[in-house]
Amino acid sequence: MNQYLDIFIEESKEHLQNMNQILLKLETATDDLTLLNEIFRIAHTLKGMSGTMGYTRMANLTHEMENVLQSIRNKEIEVNEYIIDVLFECLDTLEGYVNEVGTSGVEGDYDPKPLIEKLTNIMNNNTESNGDKSDNSDEEEDINKDEKFTIELEEITNNVISKASQSNFNSFKIKVELNPNCMLKAARAFIVFNTLEKFGEVIKSKPSAEEIEDEKFDDSFEVIFITKLDNKTIENEILKISEIEKITIEKIESTLDKEESAEDKLVRNTEKPIDYNKKEKAKTDKPKKVKSRTSKTVRVDIDRLDNLMNLVSELIIIKTRLEDIEDSKVNTNMNEAVEYLERITTSLHDAVMKVRMVPIERVFNRFPRMVRDLTKELGKEINLYMTGEETEVDRTVIDEIGDPLIHLLRNSIDHGIEDPKERDKHGKPHAGNVYLRAYPDGNNVVIEVEDDGKGIPIDKVKNKAIANGLVTEEATNNMKDEEIINLLFRPGFSTAEKVSDISGRGVGLDVVKTKIESLGGLVEVHSEYNKGSKFIIRLPLTLAIIQALMVMIGDEKYALPLNSIKEIATIKTESIRKVQNQEVVLFRNNTLPILRMNEILQVNSIYEDKEELIIVVVKKGDKTAGLVVDNLIGQQEVVIKSLGKYLAGIKVIAGATILGNGQIALIVDPNSLF
After folding, report:
1. DSSP secondary structure code for residue 596 in this structure
2. Preceding amide of 457 cis, omega within 30
3. Would you put residue 498 in left (φ > 0), alpha (ψ -120 to 50) or beta?
4. The pTM is what?
5. What are phi and psi of 266, to 5 degrees?
6. Which of 262, 416, 433, 671 is the most exposed place for a label (fewest CB within 10 A)?
7. Exactly one of 170, 411, 433, 468 is catalytic; which is it?
8. What are the pLDDT digits (tens) for 13-51?
9. Helix axes 272-294, 258-269, angle to 10 degrees
10. Of residues 15, 60, 66, 76, which has the active-site annotation?
11. 211 assigned to active site
């Protein structure tokens, strides 16, 4: 079963995500039959999948959900807020089961009975007549399922049965019900077909043989079987096969009177068989269309993509190495070969990156439900507006960005947006607005979380920072508002017990910052008191291959990511001044902090007494700094290699890269220098 486990988890999560979105739509459009049908289809699919895998709790819960949804579809029950809430509870429980399956391989011990009782009560609490009707219809459905046949005799099938009867063959309708815990239904059905075909011929099945082979059926299937055996012998033969729950057999009586024969002749002389063939053709055409559409997307294990990315990385390294070969004898053919290799590696890199890129919609989809629940819990009215869901980011980023965004949204809703009464006092709309935006910006993706709440109270943040011993009162007097707001990201704020002191804005924001920076990104905050706040997250498109500026610091080569560099300039050594033990220079009418990279990286500088210094001006949001380097080498595409677990704690270094000559150069992380 393990080989199907990953597929089960992946597909279940997709179905549950779809159910979540549809339930949110159903809440505002309760009479939309299309939405109901879609939820019913998802519940039915999940029931089949979980039953096949042996997850009975999931199967039982989805079965009860199906009953309620069927009653709603039949207009026996009207959708109301309570029913929606119960369906959301079922969704959460199913998600819990799937997550448990993902971590431990079993669905866990959570008992679905309380939820099943709620679903049963929804059915029973209807009017008596409707309740009876519902129960009776269920019973009838069960009788149909257990005893009656749904397989129909077409004209052609009738002809075959009549001819078989003339040759002393018996014709039977056979319904085979598999054990609900059967793991490989298609394989079990295949064994049944094989067993039957030893003693006769299966002339029709419902579902079709193709659908049975693709496991597109519940726990039962029906066949029309022609044989010389009697029904008892057939039953005994099939029951020898394991995981068969029940067999129902009914003999088909042959119709050989003259009227029937005349009718058969009429059938043969009309176009009905042709119509039937067309009908069959239409049935077979339909799956082909579906297959051709779905074949455009393939699930690929992320480890395989990483392996492919590593191979591309090696290609880029060898390309750089070829570029570095300096030999006067190398002819133009060599240069052409290198150029061709460069085109190939660039195209291959782009192709792999596109495979790794997924829409950020995958993360955004979970937020409308979260906002709905928080709105109910807090008694506030909140509108969530999402834009840019189609923006694509690296799969690694998708997996990591969810939690920080949840935290920022919770902060906006819980502590940013005021209570309706307070909003009315300030002349704001009764409902608060939260905006979640994503858009590409060069080699970065920008995600914004904005609200029109009360903003960040600067004085409260300042007082809390002083109380926590993060800064002195004297220091805060010289700090700008932006610097005080950035104190929210200091670890000290995450341990605050009384979140009201700073309107809760600081709780856990250090975790958000750490997570974003571990992805090579940065967080900015803009806030205006009584107007709202905006958190801006900038993330790199890819975490594997970057454009970098190669520099010399001492006799070592270092790489600086190009997307952090604002400009390169030279400054006079004599123009450097010291302010509070920090070297600064007046650069383009602004004060620019100067950071000597040889001191930070503990490398001996070759040019200690130069009159002019080369500086690389790097930016982090609104902040800038000038990094003093000894020499510039040039721009190069570099592959980021991890330093490994032992060197994971080094702040200034983001990773390493292999140069064309085989040497290793460290990649500097400018974000950590601010």
Report:
1. E
2. no
3. beta
4. 0.54
5. -60, -40
6. 262
7. 411
8. 888 888 888 888 888 888 788 888 888 888 888 888 887
9. 60
10. 66
11. no
- The phi, psi pair for 507, rounded to 5°, reads -70, 110
Identify the active-site residue in 20, 27, 44, 243: 44
The pLDDT value recorded for residue 436 is: 92
- 15 noted as active-site residue: no
| 184 vs 8: CA distance, rounded Å | 13
CA nearest 488: which of 408, 414, 403, 397? Answer: 408
pLDDT in tens, 232-247: 888 888 887 877 888 8
pLDDT digits (tens, 9 = 90+) for 169-199: 888 888 888 887 777 788 888 888 888 888 8
The three-class DSSP label of residue 32 is coil
Least confident of 504-513, 586-595, 664-673: 504-513
Instruction: Give the rounded percent of residues in the chain with a pLDDT score beyond 90.
Output: 3
Angle between helices 113-124 and 81-104 (to 10 degrees): 160
The side-by-side arrangement of strands in the sheet containing 200-206 is 200-206, 220-227, 170-178, 244-251
Task: Give me the mean pLDDT over the 331-342 stretch.
Answer: 73
Q: How far is residue 531's CA from residue 368's CA, in Å, rounded to a whole number?
A: 23
For residue 112, give Cα distances in angstroms to 23, 66, 117.
20, 15, 9
Tokens of 396: 């690694």
pLDDT of 349 > 70? The answer is yes
Residue 308 structure tokens:
């492919």
Structure tokens at 170: 């018996």
Active site residue 486: no
Half-sphere exposure of 667 (CA within 13 A, CB side): 26
